[in-house]
Fold this protein.
Amino acid sequence: GWDGRGERPLKRCEHHIHIEGTLEPKMLFALAERHNIALDSSMYSTIPALEERYRNFANLDDFLAYFNKAMDVLLDEEDFAALAFAYMQRVHADGLVHAEVFFDPQAHTGRGVALSVVVNGLKKGLKQGELEFGISTELIMCFVKHLPVESALEAVAEMKPFVEKGDVIGLGADSSEKNNPPSKFAAVYSLARELHFPRLTMHSGEEGPADWVRQTVFDLGINRVDHGFHAADDEKLLEELARRETFLTLCPLSNVRLQVTPEGVHQSPIPLLLAKGVKFSLNSDDPAYFGGYILDNYLAVHAAFNFPKSTWRRIAQNGIDGSWCSDARKAELS
Ligand code: ES4
Ligand code: ZN
């Protein structure tokens, strides 16, 4: 059947993309050389060996060890700009029209890189992409769940001027989910609300249970959930998510690589979410690590479920409607 390409192709929006997760092995090795950084040889030998390692992540934390190490090569504004622009260039070919891009400020400031270098560099690369390719973009900071709540509070406070300027539109939370229930971070979201962060989201239910998605939505009052995969284990919760129009940002290929759906995308609850009327988008998460950018994710879902054209149109339109862009931009995309 129709796969979203060809005649009147789907306009795809991406809401779950970690910019550090677009750092391709090739760029990683090139930046290491440019900055004279000696890569840890137990992790990094050759590009093909690294790509092979990326095909064998045992779980989220196994992946995060590589994800957090690779960023050591991102040092100056130019690096962040180049990273963001390379992503824009790559997804332009995929029919992407709007991107909401995550970054982990603590992962950079913790290595001594100034926050302004990170945000200004990313903004520069995204702007250049907007101009050249007509893709609209927003930046969302994520605090990392593996560091103390105190560190997240500092990261949120430090972002205030960039939020006021409109450079960063929201707060998310990512990294290790194990032993980190959403309720642990209530104060971080309270602070973001006090500081008028316009948008709030959180990684939840990727490895954690449905009950943690429940906590995210009901207790923390967050109406977008990144992954939210395990919400599908709880039918009552799905009905509530549909009623509240909670938006899930699903990442099909990520789920395969991180052993959430070890046998393949066909294990994803996407058909159940459609049946229950839960809104979602399809996303690449960390495309340099998980074997595909946005179009690859769409095509993998199509290969698994062979949805009719009407379903694909609905998925794409839900992605536009669920975007954090202006109504004028939504109208342009619809
Ligand atoms: C992530 Cl797949 C995933 N899950 C949680 N945190 C992340 N950071 C980057 N990718
Ligand atoms: Zn993610």
